[in-house]
Structures are given as C-alpha cells and as structure tokens.
TrEMBL record:
InterPro entries tied to this protein: Amidohydro-rel (IPR006680), Hydantoinase/dihydroPyrase (IPR011778), Metal-dep_hydrolase_composite (IPR011059), Metal_Hydrolase (IPR032466), Metallo-dep_Hydrolases_sf (IPR050378)
Xref: Pfam families: Amidohydro_1
Residues spanning the membrane: none
Record-stated family: Belongs to the metallo-dependent hydrolases superfamily. Hydantoinase/dihydropyrimidinase family.
Organism of origin: Heyndrickxia acidicola
Record GO terms (molecular function): dihydropyrimidinase activity
Protein name, UniProt field: Dihydropyrimidinase
Organism superkingdom: Bacteria
Required cofactor(s): Zn(2+)
EC number: 3.5.2.2
Amidohydrolase-related domain segment(s): 49-437
Keywords, sorted A to Z: Hydrolase, Metal-binding
C-alpha cells in the first residue's frame, strides 16, 4: 500500500523544507518534490506542517500507584496520545512486588498488547536490587530490548530506593549500557515535612507543594549526578521542575558528565498557585515534583532553548478528580500523585514554545520527538522523517486556534490541567507505520495495532556533552 503526503512543509530537528513523502507499507521510501507513484493514496498537506510522530519517553498507563491505579489504560491512553500527535510511548514497567523481572515484564506486555494503537517500549522500574535481580537484569534487558532503568528517590512509603540501590543501578547501567532514569527528590526529608505539616493540622492540597521544596529536588539531582559520575553511568533526570535542579544539570554537563534532563508541559506553563484552588480543586494539580512558584518556568524554557534539557515527557499518570483524587479529601498526602498530559504534550509545547517564539520549530521537533528517540535507542527508526524511517507522521495545522478542555479531550479523565488554555495549532491526521490512526481529527486506528519496540543502546548517550549556553 502506497501513500504520498503532498505539499506539506516538513520539519525535522535540523531542517524545514517543502517536499512530498512517499510511504510504502510501513516505511518512508522517498522524500522529494512532485513525487508520484502508481495507485498511491494522495494525502493533501498543503498549508500544514509535517512532523515526525511525537516520542513520549515518560508515561504511566494502567499503573498501580498510591493505593489505587491510574485511570487511563493502554486503550484510552494510546488513543489520546495519537490524537495529540504522539506515535511512540515509553512506559514504566513496575517491578516492585513481582516475583522476578520476567514476571513484571510479562504483566506489562499483557496490559499493552491488545490495546495499544501506537508503538511502545518499556523502561524497567526498580526499587531494590538484590542478588537475584542483579543476575536476572542483563538477561531481561537483552531479551526484551530494554535500554533504560528507572529509580525513584521519592515516595518513601512506596518506591523509594536507597542510595546503595541507586549506586547499584548506576553500576548495572554501566555494565549493560543502559541509561538510568531517576526521579530526583529527597523522599525521606519530604516524608518528615509531610508528618510535620499533618501534625500542625494542615490538610489542603497546597501542602503537597509546600512539603516538597525545590531545594530537595536540587539536592537529590546533585546526589544522583555525583553517584552516576562515580559509576561512569549515563543519567537521565526525569521531570525537572526547578532552577535548583536545572543548575545542577548545567554544571554537570559543563564538566562533560553524561547527564540528560527532561521536563514536562505543566512545569513550563503552570505554577504553584494552582494548588491553592478552593473546594479541593487544587488536588487536580497534585503530582510530584510539584508545580513551582512563578519564575522557575522561564528558567526551564531557557534550559530547553539552551539544550541543557533535551526532552519533553508527558508524565501521564491520570486520576479522576471526582474519583480517585478524592482519596485525599481530608489529607493532602493521600491524594494520588499525577495528572493527565499525554494528549496535550505536543500541542502545548508547540503553542507555548514555537507559536510564542520561545523555541524554534527545529528545537520543538528535537525535544518532542528526536532526542527521546536518540537517548532511548529508537533513532532513526523513530524520531525523524528520513528515508528508511518508520512512517510515523503528524500532519499539523498551525492555524487552528482552540481551547483545551476536558469536554473535548480523549483521556479517560474528568478534568484537564490545561482547562481553558488557548492554543494555536493542532494535529489533524496522524500515521503510525504508514497507517492512519487519526484521520481528519477522527480515530480510525485499531486496538492492538501498536507494536512493542525492542531497542538498542544509542551512541548519542555516549557523547560527553558540552554546554552550549547557560541560563541566567
Ligand atoms: N509524577 C507523578 O506525580 N506521578 C507519576 C509517578 C512519577 O513519575 O513520579
Ligand atoms: Zn516521578
Ligand atoms: Zn512519572
């Protein structure tokens, strides 16, 4: 089956040019002017941008967490992702509480296999590394094509790893050429601050933010950086939210350490005052690390622009407001942590970034797609528009103006963290390996059509990166 995308403006991490794209079966086979092919379906993209499909390196679909489970599963989550212009997700496979790593991965395959409508891979999330797990780790990484391991330094009562486990993970990462992803907050000190706040009678959602100050993100980021450096491991700091953490990443990169950083749309666009909303509505904005006071957002934009942060994750981890978020009605520490972002990641970054002139269109593509594909070993199959790449393509209308709302989104959640935000630009059609998943804003994909992606370690992560600019 052949398709030609005609008349669009192709944007990659490095180029912006008008050309047609010939797709044969699942791959891009030609890029050029005035392409034609017998029996090809013609897709008119004039006046539109043609982007590589978004690569979201950070999702939690159907994940047990905070005594409950996230509300978007692999069906609703991947359909919403596709509507939003994302064609690949990397989800965290939880291993805590499982008999062994193989069982944990099997469970994650079962969640995803007949539901996913876009391609996907797994990161392995570990809380403890006993001898048996350390022995099994290389076998699973190799067999499953997994190149990334996740460690939490937060959530003292659930997933938090000790510094010993973190260091073991870095050593295992070094031995197996895997990137170690770390949630950097000091969970033990946060636990203490939460107990103090509760003892003083504080129950409101805002105390979620007040008990997780940016200094504790900065401290944990520095700790992870130093331990990774001692182990000569590759570190990827997930969901960076504040100046304190960004500055540690910049210092490390200036020294040539192998450190990468991710931020997320809410940290770039919202601030801590959202948690002060009355009638418990602040709970809609409870996730970790929390939203920060005004000022941090510009610092994150500067770091993204300066390429000190490389990727944009959604950190999709949704809980209904009139449902599971109510678990914390009388106690902020019981509000399930997380928000619904998978669908708006692409459009919010385009609108707030490119449309508002904070980043260029190439920087947008780099951080929404290409860099995640490179860091996690999917490039050039994913993350770009090139001959031989998978035909994962977003046809994007940059002229559409709309308001984000839970009334029109496709996530299985009764609220939007971006409710009422005016954005410019919207994906109108999305192809995954040459097949439409979204056509003219309508879902036309098939449950289970998404393929599991085996990955290989990437030379991109070997590069000792030098700073190209500093943020103020
Ligand atoms: N971010 C959040 O609050 N929930 C998801 C788990 C995590 O990434 O920390
Ligand atoms: Zn996290
Ligand atoms: Zn997360």
């Amino acid at each position: 089956m052949k398709k030609i995308i005609k008349g669009g403006t192709i944007a990659t991490a490095t180029d912006l040019f008008k050309a047609d794209i010939l797709i044969e079966d699942e791959k891009i086979t030609q890029i050029g002017l005035n392409l034609s092919a017998k029996d090809a379906e013609i897709i008119d993209a004039s006046g539109k941008y043609v982007f590589p499909g978004g690569v979201d390196p950070h999702t939690h679909l159907d994940m047990p967490f905070n005594n409950t489970v996230t509300d978007d599963n692999w069906e609703t989550g991947t359909i919403a992702a596709a509507f939003g212009g994302t064609t690949t997700i990397l989800d965290f496979c939880l291993t805590a509480g499982e008999k062994n790593l193989a069982d944990a991965v099997k469970k994650w395959h079962e969640k995803a296999a007949d539901k996913a409508v876009i391609d996907y891979g797994f990161h392995l999330m570990v809380s403890e590394l006993d001898d048996a797990t350390l022995k099994e780790l290389p076998i699973i990484l190799e067999k499953e094509g997994i190149t990334s391991i996740k460690v939490f330094l937060a959530y003292a009562k659930e997933f938090q790893a000790t510094d010993r486990t973190l260091f073991q993970a870095f050593k295992a990462g070094k031995q197996n050429n895997a990137v170690i992803m770390v949630h950097c907050e000091n969970g033990s000190v946060i636990d203490e601050l939460v107990n103090e706040a509760k003892a003083s009678g504080h129950t409101d959602p805002i105390y979620h933010a007040l008990t997780r100050p940016p200094e504790l993100e900065g401290e944990a980021t520095k700790r992870a950086i130093e331990l990774a450096h001692i182990a000569d491991a590759k570190l990827y700091v997930v969901h960076v939210t504040c100046k304190e953490a960004v500055d540690e990443i910049i210092k490390a990169r200036e020294k040539g350490y192998k450190v990468f950083g991710e931020t997320c749309p809410p940290y770039l666009t919202l601030d801590q005052t959202e948690l002060e909303r009355p009638n418990f509505e602040g709970a809609k904005y409870v996730w970790s690390p929390p939203l920060r006071p005004k000022g941090h957002q510009e610092h994150l934009w500067n770091a993204l622009k300066a390429k000190q942060l490389q990727t944009i994750g959604s950190d999709q981890c949704s809980f209904n407001f009139n449902g599971k978020k109510q678990l914390g009605r009388d106690d902020f520490s019981k509000i399930p942590n997380g928000g619904p972002f998978i669908e708006d990641r692409f459009s919010v970054l385009y609108s707030e970034g490119v449309h508002k002139g904070r980043i260029t269109i190439n920087e947008f593509v780099e951080s929404i797609s290409t860099n995640a594909a490179k860091i996690f070993g999917l490039f050039p199959q994913k993350g770009t528009i090139a001959i031989g790449s998978d035909a994962d393509i977003v046809i994007f209308d940059p002229t559409i103006e709309r308001e984000i709302s839970a009334k029109t989104h496709h996530m299985n959640v009764d609220y939007s963290a971006f409710e009422g935000m005016k954005v410019t630009g919207e994906p109108v059609s999305v192809l995954s390996r040459g097949k439409f998943v979204i056509k003219d804003k309508t879902f036309v994909g098939q449950l289970g059509s998404g393929k599991y992606l085996k990955r290989t370690s990437s030379p991109f992560t070997e590069k000792k990166s030098k700073a190209v600019a500093s943020t103020k």
